[in-house]
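#onboarding

Welcome to the new folks! Below is a worked example of what a typical request in this channel looks like: someone posts a single protein sequence, and someone else replies with the predicted structure as tokens. Don't worry about understanding the tokens yet, we'll cover that in week two.

Example request:
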Amino acid sequence: MSIDEAIEAPPAPAHPRPPQRPRTRILPRLAGRAPAPPPAGTALHSISAVTAVLLALVAVGSVVHEPVLIPPLAASAAIVHSVPRLPLAQPRSVIAGHLLCAGIGYAVLAALGSTPWAAALAAGIGLAVMTAARTPHSPACATAVAIVLNHPRPMTFVPLLAGSVIVLVLAGWAASCARPQAPRYPAYWW
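Example response:
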């Protein structure tokens, strides 16, 4: 560069430009501080275990004409297989929570009939009773709601529910044993 070129160069700005922020993709910003997704093998294992258990429960429910179990048990299966260390995923909470809420659902159905208001009340009472009994399991509230809105026969529904939640817990335990690197389930049995 010659002296003439240096003299003709524009002067430096009085205030330097602030450094530009690095461009970030939208998806990482939306994820926030949520934990990273599990490895593909773990996710595939959980999905296949949950799906197999739910398909078996649908088959049994179809035979005895009680399909109303699927919504609460699908939510329970998701918790047991996705976050097996949480207190609400433990067998005590899963089994006792559903059975307590079934009793509450039938009691509210007998006292108030089958209305959406009664179903909401049954869910609230179920949550309160589960909390007091130290068996928190939020999907069990859906069991109380299903009972109030669909009024299934107790002689068929309650044994099916009890057997289903036991199968669900045993499937969670078996899936945990099948993958050595998976978190152990249950953290405690009762």
